[in-house]
Amino acid sequence: MAMRRTRILFMGLALLVLACGSTSGGGDDAMASGGSPGKALYNMNCTLCHGRDGKAGLNGAKDLTTSTLTKSEMVAIVQNGKGAMAAYKQLLTPKEIEAVVDHVRTLGRKK
Ligand code: HEC
Asked: Which of 7, 44, 47, 50 has most ligand 1 atoms within 8 Å of its beta carbon, as the pocket-test mutant?
């Protein structure tokens, strides 16, 4: 129950950040290509375990920068969760999940 409440709180915060970001156009977003909404969503929902750069690996999380998964495989994990990672399909819309995954895929900077 406490977990569930935390998740709802997270979503509220994510929406707040999105709302603020779109009105004030923060300079931080200049780092991402065009200031993607996925970055804000990622920073709100994913950094606890994966860190801002995706490498943190806290709570048993994988290093996202070395992930070999395809985009659709990542989307499935974010939707349904895996191991210690929660499912996000109740918290984020399909569009938001796609945006977050797009951001994750920029972290690896694969060439
Ligand atoms: C509670 C900590 C936690 C949070 C928060 C979290 N993750 Fe994870 N994530 C994990 C763990 C643990 C794994 C490894 C799961 C396994 O393989 O057993 C993982 C795995 C992944 C993978 C698969 C990587 C691979 O190569 O196998 C992706 C992609 C991913 N997370 C993306 C995200 C995104 C995007 C978010 C935010 C929406 C997020 N995670 C939030 C803990 C977390």
From this structure: 50
CATH number of residue 62's parent domain: 1.10.760.10
Does 29 map to a domain? Answer: no
Residue 93 · residue 11 · CB < 8 Å: no
> What are 40-63's pLDDT values in tens digits?
999 999 999 999 999 998 888 999
39: left (phi over 0), alpha (psi -120 to 50) or beta: alpha
Q: How many domains does the chain have?
A: 1
41 inside domain: yes
**Ligand 1 centroid, distance to 50 Cα (angstroms):** 7
